[in-house]
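Recall that a protein's primary structure is simply its ordered list of amino acids. Everything else, from secondary elements to tertiary packing, is in principle encoded there. The following example makes that idea concrete.
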Amino acid sequence: MQKARENIRVQWFIVAVAVILFVIKMTAWYLTNSVAVLTDGLESIVNVLSGFIGLYSLYLSAKPKDENHPYGHGKVEFISAGIEGTLITLAGLYIIVEAVQSFIDPEPLQSLDLGIILIGISAVINFGFGYWAYQTGKKNDSLALQASGRHLQTDTYTTLGIIAGLILIRFTNILWLDGAVAIVFALMIIHMGFRILRAAVAGIMDETDEELLAELIAYLQQNRDPKWIDLHNLRITKYGPTLHVDAHLTLPWYLTVKEAHAELDNIEELITHKFGDRIDIFIHTDFCQEFSCYLCTIEDCEVRQHPFEQRIEWTVENVASDGKHRLSRSV
């Protein structure tokens, strides 16, 4: 809950800053009549809208599990990020339309010096708050906050590019550069929107986080107990900041229910020690069979039917697959 409150507090700051920056950028556009500056201003509209959407999603994702949402409300963050990515993409497309129009019917620019100063101030503010939001979201495993921070930081880079373009126009008086700069950065904005949208769809579709899965399996392999004969059908699903892990663990068939439960407690404690209390774990136990003897490393097993031959190292391929581990000769 403490992380959730921190996420919401940071998002409130982002919303307030987004409103202030929108006013600054639109003032700069009014003074300069620059399509490139309008690019920055329109992106700030998206910042304001997505800021409120992100705030609402963080509020929902912080709510505890209930009867209607047994896995919590965390997936709303993926929806929030998806809406933000869509808005960013649409803003980029609109900017291209305005830039093309500026080529057809160019208008003189004015007050460029003041406009450059105002846009420069917004760039500094944007980067600082974007960095803070992204790092907080990364620390607290909030996709919505990371998306907001990444958006603000990217907005800073586009702003710097626009400033460079305005300075070039200021000294060359080549007016068509205004539209060209706007198109270049509109394409960057569209690319960023697609990336955020892609991450959101991946979360909604429960796409496997290969890096996280490999990290967990390597950690379990490093700390595995001889009684954990094999681990398979392991899956990780993200619901906002919460990770749901489920797997099948093969144990010696002669363990009592109490002893098997103790082994589950051990592996759950191991995972929680690594990833913290954001983990929700469900492990199904399987009993070993005759073919398991070939790869079982228990030295004092009194019911072994075949001698040990080879230990199978746990990898993403064999732990994520649905099937007990076995040597090819024991099929």
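Residues 173 and 185 are 20 Å apart (CA to CA). The chain has two domains: 2-204, 211-330.
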